[in-house]
């Protein structure tokens, strides 16, 4: 093992004796060669034992990084399993091993590592890789790369600390020093080993920025209580959180380990850590794709359709909704778990949205399919439009998360135009309403309308009616086109809301007025980009 | 009663006649489907009869309490003055020397009183059911159905009016 030098010998011996696996040993020897960790377990074990026996040999005659047949000077006695103890002069001292296993059973009875609890052992093997890939392939996701995230049980940090203290002590005895930061992290080593295998099996590269996440949660119930002593030593690190089952989260444990003094740690935790009976268990293997965003503009032609489902006490009051009519098909095509619908403002149930329509964006959560060509999006748009005459969509396209911000911007800042059908109690003539056309930048003070006052704070809003254009119909009816500031309550501007919107059409005309119909003519925001529909 | 239009379209009318035994001092509570209530004078109220002129409207109902000081914040209308059925909202004097107390008629939080009638008392008489409202009250969610138990429906109120007509003739 060319990566190991003389000064590593005592550590290797010490750790091997205490039941640490070869890969963890390499980690504590600060071996940074990724390829070495990928060697088969058996070979690594063999090589390490070789290394220990070759006490006189210089490193260049010892096996190199390539998987080679065993070295020339084999002094391994096949019946001996336990580690050999070497003193400083290199004389072999044969001590009867505690576990009297022979080499033949060595392969089948691999001791679970007392530091990684099997993560760098069993869970690097092809069987586990196959298990993960099977889960991925059966979940039917579309992806071009993956990120593999692993959740390790907190007690691993505790055991790592114990092992480090052991090694540090030994190094100290030899007059050498060891920096904690030089030790290879368990997760890092694990990824070195498993990424290439997963990558090969799945046919795509590993990429830290990938939106497709394969996650595994490991647990080791046998040793779960090992963290508990930290609660007595550093109680303020372990505050019970309402939604967490255990107070001993990974973060809390790491924090406590940073705080606790060495002497206190050694008082409560065995050093070296004990050998466990069982391996870790892979609790869940889950796949998740990052959300995709679909934007567009919708028209609403029904006067009986809410934006979101209208359900009171479990009972649906009105059939369907804008968001359901649009999202239904997207959910099916993208095969997502759920969706979040948002739009640049919204209209009442009884208001139509005409013109270019209102911008909207839908977040599709955990979609199985993510790649759609412009043609396919057009097809989707057609499908939605064919399925309902209550809504129509246009400019349907995939957008980024950042793009959503532009839409919400529009809600506050941009203008809207409306068309209202107005009734008056006292008769009107054309001349009576003509003056409305000349009013520009009319300032309104609108108190929170009574119809929403049960769920909104009481406030006064200043809003501007930029322009108006009237169309006389008959003595009691006229149509009014208005261009207003975002956030203006049009209905209240027409009927006055008990005089709580001032001025209002009623006060301007000196009559009692009512709004019979309202249509949104345009939402003046140029997002999302217009497509050649 | 004219058919409701405009602002009052989604309100149900409930009545409380002869409040505190005072004849014809009738009130009309407009209840919205979202449970917000608007307190108004019913048409039979003396203040709305011809010939009455309003001299003053006072929201200071006691030494410590002015309805104008009512301040609410947030969606749940924290800080609102709580009203019971017979809590006074304001006192109105007419030029003929009479004084009338306007009562809440329902339990709930006072959201606002109508300040427009202070500057323009005429609208109380011209448009008692809309711009001339007295106050807006939000009953507790649990009580929103029960508040109308002490009140009369439109039909029941019309019967009361009929009885009055018959007894006076």
UniProtKB/TrEMBL annotation, chain A:
Task: Spell out the molecular function terms from Gene Ontology.
Answer: metal ion binding; RNA binding; tRNA pseudouridine(55) synthase activity
Keywords assigned by UniProt, alphabetized: Coiled coil, Cytoplasm, Isomerase, Metal-binding, Mitochondrion, Nucleus, tRNA processing, Zinc
Species annotation: Otus sunia
Q: Where in the cell is it found?
A: Cytoplasm; Mitochondrion; Nucleus
What GO biological process terms does the UniProt entry carry, in alphabetical order? tRNA pseudouridine synthesis
In which domain of life is the source organism classified?
A: Eukaryota
What family is this?
A: Belongs to the pseudouridine synthase Pus10 family.
Q: What class of enzyme is it?
A: isomerase
Q: What is its EC number?
A: 5.4.99.25
Gene3D superfamilies, from UniProt?
A: 1.10.10.2050, 3.30.70.2510, 3.30.70.3190
Catalysed reactions, semicolon-separated: uridine(55) in tRNA = pseudouridine(55) in tRNA; uridine(54) in tRNA = pseudouridine(54) in tRNA
Gene Ontology terms: cellular component:
mitochondrion; nucleus
> Pfam families attached here?
Pus10_C, Pus10_N_euk
Domain named Pus10 N-terminal eukaryotes is located at: 113-287
Protein name as it appears in the record: tRNA pseudouridine synthase Pus10
Question: What are the residue boundaries of the Pus10-like C-terminal domain, all occurrences included?
Answer: 293-524
Automatic annotation (TrEMBL), chain B:
InterPro entries, sorted: Abitram, GCV_H/Fam206, Single_hybrid_motif
Q: Where is it mostly found?
A: other
Any one GO CC term of this protein is: lamellipodium
Where is this gene product found?
A: Cell projection, Dendrite; Cell projection, Growth cone; Cell projection, Lamellipodium; Nucleus speckle
Q: Which UniProt keywords apply?
A: Cell projection, Nucleus
Give the matching Pfam families: GCV_H
* MF term (GO), any: actin monomer binding
A biological process (GO) of this protein is: dendrite morphogenesis
Q: Which family does it belong to?
A: Belongs to the ABITRAM family.
| PANTHER family listed in its UniProt record | PROTEIN ABITRAM
Q: What is this protein called?
A: Protein Abitram
What is the originating organism of this protein? Otus sunia
